[in-house]
Design a protein that fits this description.
The chain is mainly α. Helices cover about 70% and strands about 0% of the residues.
């Protein structure tokens, strides 16, 4: 150009300078936040945590862990075998059809009703369990009977 001039619209250089200034402000803010932190205290706490982790690692007894894991697996295997036996015993029952199940339930209901009737009869006449019919009434203990003396 023949005459030099200063542009009034922001150019790329101005945008880059603004971005750099903004970044510097953010870094200064972050540095002031870091300065506020008690790094000595944080370092002590981190050391304490690391000491506890080291102690836990040293306290682990690998032989005991192995023995416990072996016992657990053995127990799980035994449980699995028992479960397989139980499932084999249940399998035939699962093959019953609905009519058979209804018949079984009906029979159990009839048996329950019969037991209830028997129980009521025994409550009213306990000797019926031993004798076919009740024994004759005794006059000795009958307060209504007149004693001949």
């Amino acid at each position: 150009p023949r005459y030099y001039y200063i542009p009034s619209a922001p150019g790329q250089l101005t945008s880059m300078l603004d971005a750099a200034n903004d970044m510097m402000r953010r870094m200064q803010k972050m540095m002031s936040e870091v300065e506020k932190m008690d790094l000595g205290k944080m370092g002590g706490e981190i050391n304490s945590v690391l000491e506890n982790v080291n102690k836990a690692i040293v306290d682990i007894n690998p032989q005991q862990l192995g023995d416990d894991a072996h016992a657990l697996l053995s127990s799980m295997q035994t449980s699995s075998e028992h479960l397989q036996i139980i499932l084999k015993n249940i399998e035939p029952a699962s093959k019953l059809n609905a009519d058979q199940v209804k018949s079984i339930v009906s029979n159990v209901k009839t048996m329950t009703d019969n037991l209830r009737t028997l129980s009521e009869n025994v409550k009213q006449n306990p000797s019926s369990l031993i004798f076919s019919r009740p024994p004759p009434k005794s006059k000795v203990f009958d307060p209504r009977a007149k004693h001949a003396q």
